[in-house]
Amino acid sequence: MAHPQLSEDAIDDILYLSRANEVSELFSYLSDLSQQTGLSNADLVAAAKDPYSQNTALHYAAANGHLEILKALLADKDTAAKSAINALNDSGNTPLHWAALNGHLECVKFLVERGADVTVINKAGHDAVFEAEINDKKDVVDWLLGAVEELEKGIAGGKVGEASGSGSSDEVGDMTIRMGKMDTEDGNAHG
């Protein structure tokens, strides 16, 4: 589904309010914009992408550890919200990559619980686990590896190492330790 076109100012406002952790202002703005356009909040958020970096409100909230913004943006369980959780920016990073890179464990947990794909590989060839690992975010690495192990158990029907027919549980661990470097600016991920 094609996302509606938003003005540059509307996109900038949504992204800024998400990055700045302005929860009440963001939802007041989205409510007003929704009334003007007839679009749902989820559709507005999905359409609000930086035209150059392809960063979304979820990318900025995740990068900066703004769990309440993430919860509010992903409150709807519709298709737009589901697709936004795994949105790729121009570097191939998802919001999960950014939360992991910056060590925001509660954001990582929330994103995974809401359906973020832990196996997405960015353009540098890295997944979220590797991003956390190269940035010394051990608690995030440990949690993500545990989450992947649980995912493997679920796929294999409780038999680790039998998922997708071929490999051992080590293959799942190896798969999760491939990712890419994100650009940072002002101490926050922006790549």
TrEMBL record:
The keyword Cytoplasm does not apply. ANK repeats lie at residues 53-74, 91-123. Gene3D superfamilies: Ankyrin repeat-containing domain (1.25.40.20). SUPFAM superfamilies: Ankyrin repeat. The keyword Repeat applies. It comes from the Eukaryota. Residues 180-191 have a biased composition (Basic and acidic residues). Residues 159-191 are annotated as: Disordered. Keywords: ANK repeat, Repeat. PANTHER family: ANKYRIN REPEAT DOMAIN-CONTAINING PROTEIN 39-RELATED. This is Ankyrin. It comes from Delitschia confertaspora ATCC 74209.
